[in-house]
């Protein structure tokens, strides 16, 4: 099928950047991103590009280049589905918070709604592409909904999981390690392959069956997260043995079978994907009674929770076993640098733990505002909104944030943190002035020479 019009349902962290790049590289295809969230669509259409709902380096430039030409953002979902030959489903698939599989399984209600919506309004044949991360065999459910419309419309379903990482989304999309397309119909697979073929070399476009494609996405995230939990486990051992986790990571990473990437010890991984996708994998394994498999992967999450907890425990015990009434300055709230996304950020859990000990928290993040910080804490339901509001303040200046603080906790590896005048920060803090570097981004000797009591991960 020749593709002239694409619809993407879901204008989020995946839909937005992915479709912007597809539009840039395929000027002859009209790409429309639709969403039920009107506020989000308004923000995507804002003249002022700093107001786009998602911050990603390089994204605003591509939106500026394509928006209004062949890239559109709209709330007209039915009309857009109707006119398009290819429809991407790129909606959220969070962990279920209710019913069977609560806390483990992926909640597929938004995906099902999309499938029903497509089934209801389509009057011509469509290729439906699963872009959201889905449990293996979801395509079966989508197929069943689409094929029972009683209409004379043919649907082909493809799985095309997205591997971009936030903060580097545009680079990842422009130069992907691979594009994965799972499907039954060769025609449909080649239609999608030709969209990517505008800029991705054919040998990097992998064709598989639908189930391998769906499962590969969960597996890739499980392997990536496992590396972080592995190095974080070693970081704790380093702290007891005078080994240095950076040196260990370098030494093992030079083994070409292990490789150097993704071995940064940290306060624990965050983000909307790793935890959700591993829990989902564990749930699927248990549903087939594969308990040894489920236990194996679950340990990645258990270790990650332990890493977040031991960071805040260490902070409290170092501050003479109490943070009650003390000002703790948190630098960074996003789950990693170069994004405004805070979903599952380790900072939220560390803050919550410190708040239970009655700390006063001051937050500075270059891309996250106070409204988001408060919403993240309120979502946990640990204490009242008023209490969170009283105990947690956000600042727009790092020096204000750290003024009179007893300790600084570095939660995100933003590059700008390395360039601060740390002597100035030291001078205005309470003494002894502590730094807990949860990202190992500062130089220990330099900090100690200034006078800080400096501790980091795995050293
Ligand atoms: N965030 C990432 O880095 C990333 C990377 C790869 C894959 N994924 C996967 O991609 C999917 C989307 O993730 P995201 O981070 O973009 O989520 P998101 O929450 O940022 O965006 C999803 C959007 O879908 C919209 N939506 C939900 N139901 C809808 C409906 N019925 N009709 C129209 N719009 C609807 C929501 O309003 C929201 O704006 C998830 O399955 C996720 O696991 C995410
Ligand atoms: O060595 C490392 C690497 C990462 N992290 C942390 O791990 C989390 C996830 O980071 P990253 O994977 O870079 O970002 P995500 O945007 O969550 O991307 C992951 O999740 C996406 C959603 O499924 C996938 O598409 C990507 O391939 C996969 O990398 C963040 O909190 C990082 O700070 C570490 O602690 N140490």
From TrEMBL:
It catalyses: UDP-alpha-D-glucose + 2 NAD(+) + H2O = UDP-alpha-D-glucuronate + 2 NADH + 3 H(+). Pathway: Nucleotide-sugar biosynthesis; UDP-alpha-D-glucuronate biosynthesis; UDP-alpha-D-glucuronate from UDP-alpha-D-glucose: step 1/1. GO terms for molecular function: NAD binding; UDP-glucose 6-dehydrogenase activity. The active site is at 273 (nucleophile). Residues 329-444 form the UDP-glucose/GDP-mannose dehydrogenase C-terminal domain. Keywords: NAD, Oxidoreductase. It is an enzyme of class 1 (oxidoreductase). GO terms for biological process: glycosaminoglycan biosynthetic process; UDP-glucuronate biosynthetic process. This is UDP-glucose 6-dehydrogenase. It comes from Winogradskyella thalassocola.
